[in-house]
Amino acid sequence: MTDPRPEPDDLRAALAAGDESAFRDLLERLGPRLHRAATRLLGSRTDADDAVQEVFVSLVRSRDRLIEVKSVSSYAFVVLYRMGARLQKARQRQPGLLGNLEDQAAPSVGPTDFDEEMLNRAVQSLPGEQREVVVMRTDGGLTFAEISELTGVNSNTVASRYRYALEKLREELKTKTC
Amino acid sequence: MLDPINLPEELREIEADLSREPSAEISQELHAKVMSSVHETIDRERHAAASRRSKTRHLWLPLSMVSLATAACVALIVARFIDQKPNRWRLSHLDPAPVAQQYANEDESGADDANEDNAGEDLFQDDSSLPTIQHYRLALSESPADWEALVDRELDMFQELGGDSQPIRWRQGTSSLQDD
After folding, report:
1. How far apart are CA B1 and CA A4, in angstroms?
2. Cα-flanking dihedrals φ and ψ of residue B85, to 5°?
3. Contact A169 B14 (CB under 8 A)
4. Most confident of A151-155, B19-23, B109-113
5. A112: which of A140, B130, B136, B177 lies 20 to 30 Å off by Cα?
6. Cβ-defined contact of B23 to A113 (cutoff 8 Å)
7. pLDDT digits (tens, 9 = 90+) for A97-138
8. Does B3 contact A119 at a Cβ distance shorter than 8 Å?
9. CA separation (Å) from B97 to A7, B4, B125?
10. Is the pLDDT of residue B55 over 80?
């Protein structure tokens, strides 16, 4: 069944004009995916809530730019990534921008799908550099080239990290399901 | 796929699971919080823009008044400057030509007595700055008839004002007043 809500890119003009109902539509369209990506990146529901709120405030402030961006969705995830990176830097976590989340409290995410929750936890256990590539690609839909530009890392390195991340997730999920 | 990567089947399945649409919507509390922030931000920016426009509009009135006042002052100064220029050629300076021409061109039949009297007063008010007869000679050197007419008229006016009734030597070309 197709989603009746408008695609994010179809909302550009209304968003740029400051139409609040367009932002509501965008939140309903992108919100769940953004929130999941934020949870996977930051490892905390509270942080994920704050991150989503900040992303939308940032989108409002830069709404004039939304007319020109290639993809509104990708732009939102780029903003999320940068926000998450700033948050993590403020917490002085190493290595990578996101660092490891092993010492953080388990997120109180509330998905109804057991597999999804298991997946989220598995992603959170990845090293920061791999985690950010996985989230930006699977949740954000960014290409390796876009992730490369975002992180400042060579696109081949990005692709390698992605592959290693998926392999690690496979091992993690095999362990949990056995 | 955004950019193909050679992944084994197992990893593609995990990738697909990761990319699936989230099963849960965001909480109503988060929804309300986000929309409230959106509304506040838009509202704040619109007020700021309206305030900037209002300030600019309010600046126009005093600025335009200052410009008008400045333009008026400049115009007054220029007009004053232009107005002062003809004073250089008044009788108080030693250039008799315009005055001589004035008398020469005046229509005797239609001349206003009052104007003549006023003209005479202009002539005799300040003796020290009056041009000498030599100046008039120079001015009218090409028209002796006009010169004679001018001298006669001036003599008449001089006498009307109580001046010496004796003929004045300068008729004969001297530059000082002498009794006959």
Report:
1. 23
2. -60, -50
3. yes
4. A151-155
5. A140
6. yes
7. 454 454 444 444 444 445 788 899 999 999 999 999 999 999
8. no
9. 93, 104, 19
10. no
Say which residue the tokens 């995830």 belong to.
A77
* Binary contact (B45, A167; C-beta < 8 A): no
Pull the structure tokens for residue A134: 């996985």
Amino acid at A31: G
User: For the whole prediction, is pTM greater than 0.95?
Assistant: no
Name which of A20, A35, A25 is nearest B25 in CA terms: A35
Read off the pLDDT of each residue in A67-78 and give the average, rounded to a whole number.
Answer: 93
Residues of A in contact with B41 (CB under 8 A): 57, 60-61
Please give the DSSP secondary-structure letter assigned to residue A112. S
In three-state secondary structure terms, B130 is coil
CA–CA separation, B134 and B136 (whole Å): 5
Residues B30-35: contacts with CB under 8 Å, at least 24 apart: B30/A31, B30/A35, B30/A49, B30/A52, B30/A53, B31/A27, B31/A28, B31/A31, B33/A49, B33/A53, B34/A27, B34/A31, B34/A52, B34/A53, B34/A56, B35/A20, B35/A23, B35/A24, B35/A27
- Is residue A102 classed as helix, strand or coil in its secondary structure? coil
| Whether the complex's predicted ipTM surpasses the cut of 0.85 | no
Residues of B in contact with A57 (CB under 8 A): 37-38, 41
The whole-angstrom distance between residue B169's C-alpha and the CA centroid of its chain comes to: 51
C-alpha distances in angstroms, A91 versus A101, A161, B44? 12, 24, 30
What does chain A come to in residues?
178
Angle, alpha carbons B154-B155-B157 (nearest 5°) = 65
Does the CA dihedral B135-B137-B142-B147 come out positive or negative?
positive
- Asked if B104 and B143 touch (Cβ cutoff 8 Å), the reply is yes
- Residue A169 CB partners (closer than 8 Å, separation 6+): A119, A122, A123, A126, A134, B14, B18
Burial code (b: 16+ CB inside 10 Å, e: under 16) for B85-101 equals: eeeeeebeeeebeebbe
Q: How far apart are CA B143 and CA B148, in angstroms?
A: 9
φ and ψ at residue B37, rounded to 5 degrees: -65, -40
